[in-house]
Specification:
200 residues; alpha+beta; 20% helix; 5-stranded antiparallel β-sheet
Length: 200
């Protein structure tokens, strides 16, 4: 795989500064990984405007994966204008097709992603406006729930070569817990395989 000539995220991309871009090939950790790609990691220095205060500069770590077109942002402070930030990134980097600061996925793809786990610790679905464990819906077999009900939250466990990973899903966000330094990358690759590639 030949490296790209230019990182797809440029330093003069609109209303923010971009620094410390590093590009590296993605090494598959999951079986049947469908993408041959580079990931480009860096920091956005974003000037958040405010009508009542002078505003503030916020560092936002990002990762762009050029095969799946997945763009991941991570910040350690609350942003009052997350939607504005996302719109500006989309304008500055038009080749990005998907930005997942919240997980908006088809229900069947999300079920497929969670079912790829080694252990399902908890999955709650929405039934008549009420959060209900997926295996406790009266009159509906569990196999008929899977893929057909909206998932509210879930906790699943993964194991890869003796490394344990716990994934929490709630209201469109993923939280990944693992002592393994590759734990987050492993979950991202599962997400790409089951949701991004699987939805094509």
């Amino acid at each position: 795989m030949e490296p790209p000539e230019e990182p797809p995220v440029q330093r003069d991309s609109g209303p923010f500064e971009i620094s410390d871009i590093e590009s590296s090939p993605v090494k598959p950790l999951v079986e049947r990984y469908p993408f041959e790609q580079y990931k480009h990691e860096g920091t956005l220095i974003y000037d958040e405007e405010s009508s009542y205060t002078p505003g503030r500069s916020i560092n936002v770590d990002f990762e762009y994966r050029d095969g799946s077109n997945l763009f991941i942002v991570e910040y350690k402070t609350d942003l009052s204008s997350t939607e504005r930030l996302v719109r500006e990134i989309e304008t500055a980097v038009p080749q990005i097709e998907r930005i997942y600061r919240n997980l908006h996925a088809a229900e069947d793809a999300l079920w497929r992603f969670l079912e790829s786990a080694d252990r399902i610790l908890e999955i709650n679905v929405l039934v008549n406006g009420k959060e209900t464990p997926y295996d406790e819906i009266e009159g509906v077999p569990r196999e008929d729930v899977i893929g057909n009900y909206a998932i509210e939250n879930a906790i699943v466990g993964l194991n890869h070569q003796g490394n344990n990973i716990t994934v929490h899903y709630e209201h469109g966000t993923l939280q990944i817990e693992s002592d393994w330094e590759q734990g987050t990358e492993f979950v991202i690759q599962l997400f790409e395989r089951e949701i991004l590639h699987g939805s094509k």
